[in-house]
Amino acid sequence: LVVLGIETSCDDTAVAVVRSDGEILSQVVSSQADLLVKYGGVDPKMAEEAHSQVIDQVVQEALDKAYMTEKDLTAVAVTIGPGLSLCLRVGVQKARRIAGGFNLPIIGIHHMEAHALVARLIEKDLQFPFMALLISGGHNLLILARDLGQYIQLGTTIDDAIGEAYDKLAKWLGLDMSRSGGPAIEELAREGNDKSFNFSIPMKQHKDCNFSYAGLKTQVRRAIESKKIDAKIPISSASYEDRMSRADMAASFQRIAVLHLEERCERAIQWALKMEPSIKHLVISGGVASNQYVRARLDAVVKKNGLQLVCPPPRLCTDNGVMIAWTGIEHFRVGRYDPPPPAEDPEDFFYDVRPRWPLGEEYAEGRSESR
Ligand code: ATP
Ligand code: FE
């Protein structure tokens, strides 16, 4: 099997060609970093236009790099949710046009499921059931993956996701936003003292596996104000003292933000092992999982609790087409796909995009079980 994966749920246009033995034949990402800098965030309309402008070319490049044409594909996989509906539609339209034109089955993919399952591409020993902590810009999920398509949510955020907090802090600290805030904070934090600010760990009193980052953000915001850190002065022109105080802020934030993850994971592992004693692995994925500090801290917790950490390489943690193609392969193998759309008008009927789509809800309507 050879599957083309298309991802346009947020600000990256990502396409890849993956073979069922796990060989990545090509992967291309076109990011909208310049738009992000200009508008200070993702504007759905702008993002949609940017996707539309590059989608044909990104798909072509992915095929070329794989030395393939559409005729060599077995199926097309595309993210149908969750995400920005305008953006999702660009990917879905493209997928339908290819599938319709070349008589290929189409597989609608859940973006967060793909973040989790890509771990099975890189770690062949990773069998169900396993646990996953999915940490990105829009999600903070702890799940128990019992089987393909069967996910139990152990915890989610009650407000913001950790990646959002990293991005906000980067903005407040005047960091270079030509890429996302996370890597900039990770780098700066290495220069700082992580105990110089005493932020409190979120949700200490809640004995569950949910997350919260809004309170920590407020604490950090107040500390920034009291230290008179001015985001309008870019860090590159800050005085040594100013730079150090920003680094301390980044390091102290990161320590607590990640401690929160550690505590929740520890509780979740103990709980999940009671339910599924055969669990051996905890996967971390999503953009924030590309952070080395996050990886090291979680590795320790996971090992201490008798499991093994599985973490995809950074470029497979952030949004990518490989995870979509791979998840497509997983579903295709068990017969979960839709038939090719009619060639004469592939966009004839509305393909259900699902901007809000909780993971854990079974694949149901809109998707054939077996064909
Ligand atoms: P979602 O998957 O929830 O829809 P998304 O698709 O925007 O969100 P991803 O590409 O999976 O997100 O992740 C992007 C997020 O990861 C951003 O918030 C970014 O700051 C964060 N991130 C990326 N690299 C790092 C890093 N090294 N350290 C911390 N955070 C990081
Ligand atoms: Fe993502």
Briefly say what this structure is.
The protein contains 11 helices and 10 strands. The chain has helices at residues 33-39, 44-65, 85-102, 111-122, 162-172, 181-189, 214-226, 240-275, 292-304, 314-317, 322-333, and strands spanning 2-7, 12-19, 24-31, 75-81, 106-110, 130-135, 140-147, 150-155, 281-285, 308-310. The protein is globular, with a radius of gyration of 21 Å.
Number of contiguous helices: 11
Sheet-strand content, in percent, reads 15-25%
* Hetero groups: adenosine-5'-triphosphate, fe (iii) ion
How far from one another are the termini?
17 Å
The neighbouring-strand order within the major sheet is: 3-2-1-4-5
| Portion of residues within helices | 40-55%
**Which class do the helix and strand fractions yield?**
alpha/beta
Let me know the average pLDDT. 93
Shape: globular
Largest beta-sheet details: 5 strands, mixed
How would you describe this structure to a colleague?
By secondary structure, the chain is α/β, with parallel strands linked by helices. It has eleven helices and ten strands. About 40% of the residues lie in helices and about 15% in strands. The chain has a five-stranded mixed beta sheet, sandwiched between helices. Strands 8-7-6-9-10 form a five-stranded mixed beta sheet. Helix 2 runs parallel beside helix 3 and helix 7 (about 215-225) packs antiparallel against helix 8. The protein binds adenosine-5'-triphosphate (ATP) and fe (iii) ion (FE). Adenosine-5'-triphosphate binds near residues 167, 287, 290 and 319.
